[in-house]
Amino acid sequence: MDRKTVNVEIESKKEVPAEALAAARHELGEHNGINMSIEASNTFTFKDSDAMNRAFLGEVGPKTGIYIYSRHLNPTILNLGRQIAAMEGTETAYCTASGMSAISSVFLQLCNTGGYVVAAKTLYGGSHALLTHFLPQKCNITTTFVDIVDLEEVDKAMIEGKTSVLGKVVVDNTFAPMILSPAKLGADVVVHSISKYISGEADIIAGAVCGPADIVDQMRDPHEGPFMLLGPTMNPKLAFEISGRIPHLSMRMKKHCKRAMKYVTKMKELDPNLDVLYPGLKEHPQHSLLKSMSNKDYGFGGVFCIDMKTEGRAYRLMDKLQNNSKFGFMGVSLGYYETLMSCSSSSTNSMLDTKEKERAGISPGLVRFSVGYVGTFEQKWSQFTRAYSEM
């Protein structure tokens, strides 16, 4: 990495995500193509034996154009990492094979055996299962789940000298790329499931860890880092493909957010008794907070929920929306250009027990909508009202 690239990365921390991405110009292709080249090699050669030795000692590396092995670092993946880091306003980023591999690697880096985590009670179900079952059993790492906006509850859960995570603040920003910049708000590490909004096409699995160089560099240490030793490696061909989607992310996020806001507004007009949960609604308890934290012009996200109260009613609504009116598809992911629907209690959060679901505000009939933007709003709204009227 040359001095110019370093300066671009430093400057990107001061900019909004779209500007930072535009400034973080990736390296040109091998023959000065406007797209970066794909480095498909899994191993790299050295000009002499001394350079090889120094590379494994960590004395030379990508900043001087020296690579060891693609499980450690690959030029194409590194360029994608620069884009993700620019977007999040962090010093660096490492792209992984999945969002869960990114999250797992962060916990294993920040926590030693016997470590302690304070986490939000409304975590993604896979992260909740990791903290509730896998890490306690395999690593003796325990977690207390709290209402993260109740600062008194958070403070009580913290154990001085022991709390590994929340001592280091880790934020999963999968639901809000471009909308929120957690690192600029004080987060130490930001993780993503690139599979969702950043990809946008529901056709890949990938993740990212964004943060300060001292943490991320330790994670890819050739001898001790979880990236090197656990091998959550992204394929460079996939990194190239994802890189080509990032320039559209700003426009896509605005479309998702605008469509979601129109839906929830019309739904409240359609049925004032319908229990709609969306932070864009002024009655939402965190409306003002999100408005104060979010980047300008992006709105309040592309996901909202309807509480149909019972699992049976939730299933009936989803069946009608998919099979009768063609409004969307039943699926558990998000960030797709078509609307995806799931009953959270029996799908993405099915690993939580009844009390945990109640505490997280996940009722049996909660239907999550990841809003797409295909078709006209009038067309899709007609499809929704047709299915809802049949309920």
Automatic annotation (TrEMBL):
<comment type="similarity">
    <text>Belongs to the trans-sulfuration enzymes family.</text>
</comment>
<dbReference type="InterPro" id="IPR000277">
    <property type="entry name" value="Cys/Met-Metab_PyrdxlP-dep_enz"/>
</dbReference>
<dbReference type="GO" id="GO:0019346">
    <property type="term" value="P:transsulfuration"/>
</dbReference>
<keyword id="KW-0663">Pyridoxal phosphate</keyword>
<protein>
    <recommendedName>
        <fullName>Methionine gamma-lyase</fullName>
    </recommendedName>
</protein>
<dbReference type="Pfam" id="PF01053">
    <property type="entry name" value="Cys_Met_Meta_PP"/>
</dbReference>
<dbReference type="GO" id="GO:0005737">
    <property type="term" value="C:cytoplasm"/>
</dbReference>
<dbReference type="GO" id="GO:0016846">
    <property type="term" value="F:carbon-sulfur lyase activity"/>
</dbReference>
<dbReference type="GO" id="GO:0030170">
    <property type="term" value="F:pyridoxal phosphate binding"/>
</dbReference>
